[in-house]
Amino acid sequence: MRALYIASTGMLAQERNVEVISNNVANMRTTGFKRQRAEFQDLLYQDLRRSGSTTSTAGTAAPVGIQIGSGVRLAATARVMSQGSVENTGKELDIAIRGEGFFQIQTPDGRTAYTRDGSFEINAQGQLVTVEGYQVVPGITFPQNAKNISINQEGEIQVQVGNATGQTILGQLTLARFVNKAGLEANGDNLFLETAASGPAQVSTPGSPGYGTMLQNHLEMANVNSVAEISDLIAAQRAYEMNSRIIKAADEMLSATSNLR
């Protein structure tokens, strides 16, 4: 019976949906995390009678046809790149991006990755790095006696060196943006990688037209809405339950057929 297979595709699709929702909820407190949304497509149809087919010798045509679908499949897990809430941390190397753009990060394998996570540190060599020790691009190196770090909205980094009364400019952070930022590939560690779907990175200074600005002592939180996720979870659970009931009903129908005398 076709209903058994169709309902099984529905159960599998909702299982994947719950997995996406669970990942969103698990990362509710992940800095710069962008939630995902499961998107589905119906599968191929079997035409038992095509629309417009002849229904009599007089040439009359069927206004509608008969099509039986074969179920559903997971088509994509689209990433929602909306701005997350910004929280004050009081830490001078925490930077939030307000608006468009990603920080650029040099990975150990030499590739450039991109992130919205601005929780940076200084390593033993004085370099500005992520919490995993990956260097921020362009490279910024702090003197050993640097203090009073200041990062303005345009990403310019200034420090007070030793006993100097004035500020010294160390460097300029830049932001990268993409034509299709939802096409970036998540790589773990709060990092994204460029893909053919995202297009090449377009790099400029913060505050340039189309680019966001930087906010020191702040971090961007995940854009996960707990109420919306729970609502989606309940809907997925009910859909899974209804598909399981269809399988049970189809099984009972087959049982009744096999018991005919």
From TrEMBL:
<comment type="similarity">
    <text>Belongs to the flagella basal body rod proteins family.</text>
</comment>
<dbReference type="GO" id="GO:0009426">
    <property type="term" value="C:bacterial-type flagellum basal body, distal rod"/>
</dbReference>
<keyword id="KW-0966">Cell projection</keyword>
<protein>
    <recommendedName>
        <fullName>Flagellar basal-body rod protein FlgG</fullName>
    </recommendedName>
</protein>
<keyword id="KW-0282">Flagellum</keyword>
<dbReference type="InterPro" id="IPR012834">
    <property type="entry name" value="FlgG_G_neg"/>
</dbReference>
<keyword id="KW-0975">Bacterial flagellum</keyword>
<feature type="domain" description="Flagellar basal body rod protein N-terminal">
    <location>
        <begin position="4"/>
        <end position="34"/>
    </location>
</feature>
<feature type="domain" description="Flagellar basal-body/hook protein C-terminal">
    <location>
        <begin position="216"/>
        <end position="260"/>
    </location>
</feature>
<dbReference type="GO" id="GO:0071978">
    <property type="term" value="P:bacterial-type flagellum-dependent swarming motility"/>
</dbReference>
<dbReference type="InterPro" id="IPR020013">
    <property type="entry name" value="Flagellar_FlgE/F/G"/>
</dbReference>
<dbReference type="Pfam" id="PF22692">
    <property type="entry name" value="LlgE_F_G_D1"/>
</dbReference>
<keyword id="KW-0969">Cilium</keyword>
<dbReference type="InterPro" id="IPR010930">
    <property type="entry name" value="Flg_bb/hook_C_dom"/>
</dbReference>
<feature type="domain" description="Flagellar hook protein FlgE/F/G-like D1">
    <location>
        <begin position="96"/>
        <end position="159"/>
    </location>
</feature>
<dbReference type="Pfam" id="PF00460">
    <property type="entry name" value="Flg_bb_rod"/>
</dbReference>
<dbReference type="InterPro" id="IPR037925">
    <property type="entry name" value="FlgE/F/G-like"/>
</dbReference>
<comment type="subunit">
    <text>The basal body constitutes a major portion of the flagellar organelle and consists of four rings (L,P,S, and M) mounted on a central rod. The rod consists of about 26 subunits of FlgG in the distal portion, and FlgB, FlgC and FlgF are thought to build up the proximal portion of the rod with about 6 subunits each.</text>
</comment>
<dbReference type="InterPro" id="IPR019776">
    <property type="entry name" value="Flagellar_basal_body_rod_CS"/>
</dbReference>
<dbReference type="Pfam" id="PF06429">
    <property type="entry name" value="Flg_bbr_C"/>
</dbReference>
<dbReference type="InterPro" id="IPR053967">
    <property type="entry name" value="LlgE_F_G-like_D1"/>
</dbReference>
<dbReference type="InterPro" id="IPR001444">
    <property type="entry name" value="Flag_bb_rod_N"/>
</dbReference>
